[in-house]
């Protein structure tokens, strides 16, 4: 071991080369040029034909497939030829796309693999006028070298205002009273509401929209608490908001406003179990994503009086069925996904996506990119297993965090025999950031936006390189991820210096977890992992294996690291399937097991 150095260089400082695949240049279609044949004399004085192409119109072509605000269209026209063709069938879109360098859509157009294949490689950027990109095949876009950008910030205020509008309308029964009066009734006693002043609002997700809702709710005299694993406590305090755990937010709230993304971790996060932990008579607003609520469970909670009212702008399936019990429930106020539907927001989204598309066509890197640009194949080939290791270490580390303080400081250590100039860690750092952020966020993190995304969330990532003696044939010996100033769900993951620590290596091309806290383990990072801290005694492997075997959960790897014989040990178990809650409970009830945690990769 010879030296160690620290770095936190920005990914966004990289400049594309003139031949970058993000540029439309040198992709000039023949329809945009004048082609002529001229004759020239060679050294033998014979005339030979020569093809000459005179560029008549060097502008790229942008297809706008759904209605876009006029300001955005005008911005595009200053740089490109713009074809506004709406309501295209999938076949018509595939036919047109081969003549286009960029495509802009909203949520109604499906940009499928067939679209990218039909483009013949000419399509360089897809712009989504809005936040969600569920309608764009990101894998196909990346495979075809096409950048995908969105417009994540322009509708923030509109969504927050709609959330507050639903909050007030729900509390005062505005929609129900309006419908009643229009049928000729005058039922003042039936529609007595509740006041907002002095009530506790739990904002679930303290990002752009959530923080704006909190500011407005404070102005209405509400006490605001929030839950968000990544929100810095100082930013929340500046707004007058207390960050709390998920369970505390559920238990204390009179009103709950949802602003979390739809991810595997948040899918149906409000369900029968979580509703049972809420105050009786709680009121719920959702202007985020429909899938974060188990809609059948919400109907049961409404019927039982656990939830007094709900106001919903989004649904699991949109539009919901006409006979939906949830939509038709008398204590539910609904709107047809209007969160971003203000004239100002629509213009803002149009400008934001147009600027991103124009920048991408110029070959510039975009902070709103949601997929990775092309990386040289030789770099990917060499770093591929370490890229996978980096992301999975990030995912493991963040799942070990508990409490409401949020992740603020992450240190990444690389041990390598290569000199710093011979090891570019930008991609590895981006993948660690991806692993830390994506499990609880709708943001797609890549080489382009990793540092930008981390900075937005108050997440500081520093890097240290340990220079090893030996052959530099392999790019890395190990990667270590440490998260400081947080509590852990698994106390054994805390190192001697007080940080959550996980460490991994690549063995035979497969990423392995080799250290948790101070305990040495060796388990392949495939499927998912159960970590158990136990008293080191005979039969423990058999007991845990039997519980998993009874549920037909396949164990792929098992490793035990111990402090000393018959003392404490950490058992790392790789499983192919997710065990049931009952099975995990049974593992925790084994007398020698002191703590355990299930980590999903």
TrEMBL record:
NCBIfam families attached to this UniProt entry: PGDH (TIGR01327)
Pfam families assigned: 2-Hacid_dh, 2-Hacid_dh_C, ACT, PGDH_inter
Name the UniProt record assigns to this protein: D-3-phosphoglycerate dehydrogenase
Keyword ATP-binding: no
Segments of this protein annotated with the region Disordered: 1-23
Natural source organism: Cinchona calisaya
Keywords of this entry: Amino-acid biosynthesis, Chloroplast, NAD, Oxidoreductase, Plastid, Serine biosynthesis, Transit peptide
Compartments where found: Plastid, Chloroplast
Family per record: Belongs to the D-isomer specific 2-hydroxyacid dehydrogenase family.
Signal peptide: none
């Amino acid at each position: 071991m010879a030296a160690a150095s620290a770095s936190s260089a920005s990914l966004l400082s990289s400049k594309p080369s003139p031949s970058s695949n993000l540029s439309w240049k040198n992709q000039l279609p023949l329809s945009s040029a004048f082609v002529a044949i001229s004759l020239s004399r060679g050294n033998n004085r014979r005339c030979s034909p020569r093809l000459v192409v005179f560029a008549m119109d060097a502008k790229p072509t942008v297809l706008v497939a759904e209605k876009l605000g006029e300001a955005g269209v005008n911005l595009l026209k200053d740089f490109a030829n713009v074809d506004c063709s709406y309501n295209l069938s999938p076949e018509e879109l595939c036919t047109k796309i081969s003549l286009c360098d960029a495509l802009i859509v909203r949520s109604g157009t499906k940009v499928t693999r067939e679209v990218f294949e039909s483009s013949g490689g000419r399509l360089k950027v897809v712009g989504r006028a809005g936040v969600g990109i569920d309608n764009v095949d990101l894998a196909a876009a990346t495979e075809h070298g096409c950048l995908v950008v969105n417009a994540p910030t322009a509708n923030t205020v509109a969504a927050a205002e709609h959330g507050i509008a639903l909050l007030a309308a729900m509390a005062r029964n505005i929609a129900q009273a309006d419908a009643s009066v229009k049928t000729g009734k005058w039922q003042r006693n039936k529609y007595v509401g509740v006041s907002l002043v002095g009530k506790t609002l739990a904002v679930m997700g303290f990002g752009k929209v959530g923080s704006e809702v909190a500011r407005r709710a404070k102005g209405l005299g509400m006490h605001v608490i929030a839950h968000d694993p990544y929100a810095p406590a100082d930013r929340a305090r500046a707004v007058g908001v207390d960050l709390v755990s998920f369970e505390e937010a559920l238990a204390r709230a009179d009103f709950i406003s949802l602003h979390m993304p739809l991810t595997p971790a948040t899918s149906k996060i409000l369900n029968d179990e979580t509703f049972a932990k809420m105050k009786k008579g709680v009121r719920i607003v959702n202007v985020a994503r429909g899938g974060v609520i188990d809609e059948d469970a919400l109907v049961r909670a409404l019927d039982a009086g656990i939830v007094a009212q709900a106001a919903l702008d989004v649904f699991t399936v949109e539009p919901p069925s006409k006979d939906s019990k949830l939509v038709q429930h008398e204590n539910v106020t609904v709107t047809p996904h209007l969160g971003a539907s203000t004239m100002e927001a629509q213009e803002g989204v149009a400008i934001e996506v147009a600027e991103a598309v124009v920048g991408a066509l110029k070959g510039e890197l975009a902070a709103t990119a949601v997929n990775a640009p092309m990386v040289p194949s030789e770099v990917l080939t060499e770093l591929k297993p370490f890229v996978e290791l980096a992301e999975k270490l990030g995912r493991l580390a963040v799942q070990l965090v508990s409490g409401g303080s949020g992740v603020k400081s992450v240190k990444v250590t690389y041990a390598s025999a290569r000199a710093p100039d011979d090891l570019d860690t930008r991609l590895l750092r981006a993948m660690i950031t991806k692993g830390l952020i994506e499990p609880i966020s709708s943001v797609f993190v890549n080489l382009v936006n990793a540092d930008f995304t981390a900075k937005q969330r108050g997440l500081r990532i520093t890097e240290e390189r340990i220079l090893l003696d030996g052959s530099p044939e392999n790019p890395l010996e190990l990667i270590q991820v440490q998260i400081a100033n947080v509590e852990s769900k698994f106390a054994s993951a805390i190192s001697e210096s007080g940080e959550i620590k996980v460490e991994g290596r690549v063995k035979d091309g497969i990423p392995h977890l080799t250290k948790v806290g101070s305990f040495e383990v060796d388990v392949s990072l495939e499927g998912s992992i159960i970590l158990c801290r136990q008293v080191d005694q005979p039969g423990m492997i058999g007991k845990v294996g039997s519980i998993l075997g009874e549920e037909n959960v396949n164990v792929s790897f098992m490793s035990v690291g111990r402090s000393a014989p018959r003392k404490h040990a950490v058992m790392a178990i790789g499983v192919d399937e997710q065990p049931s809650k009952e099975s995990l409970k049974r593992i925790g009830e084994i007398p020698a097991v002191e703590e355990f945690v299930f980590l999903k990769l």
